[in-house]
Amino acid sequence: MPEVAFEIIDEGRPSQVAARIEGGRVLLPARSLETALGWELKPKGLCRGDVCVPVAGRPGLVSDGQVDLASFAELLGRPLALDLEEHAAALGASARERGEALAGGIAPDFTLPDLSGREWTLSGFRGKKVLLVAYASW
What we know:
Elements: E1 4-10, E2 13-22, E3 25-29, H1 30-37, E4 40-42, E5 45-48, E6 51-53, E7 62-63, E8 66-68, H2 69-76, E9 80-83, E10 88-91, H3 95-104, E11 111-113, E12 119-121
Parallel strand pairs: 1-10
Antiparallel strand pairs: 1-2, 2-3, 3-8, 4-5, 5-6, 7-8, 9-10, 11-12
């Protein structure tokens, strides 16, 4: 099957890379994995900086220089949202990373508009007590 343009969002950063879709699986060539996620396929495994994760004994993860995106996310303990029709995927933070953020007691920064369109950023209120109210019609 030919390669298609595929968008991967990781840590809030979107990347468009080449991928193959086969039987409900997204297969990333090594160059795409490195471009989108910063992981390099080496003889000793998948490596990012000084961290390497062995791939031996993990059937379906790496085949012919292609990395199965779902198996990769599972290996790292990261949730994956995948939309094959739209050629898009998003990787979430691992449970360990989410746990560390919660233990730190600091909410992640975000910016949202109020009803009049003025944007407010959470970090602008650091050191103050903040009450966030969210509403959804559904």
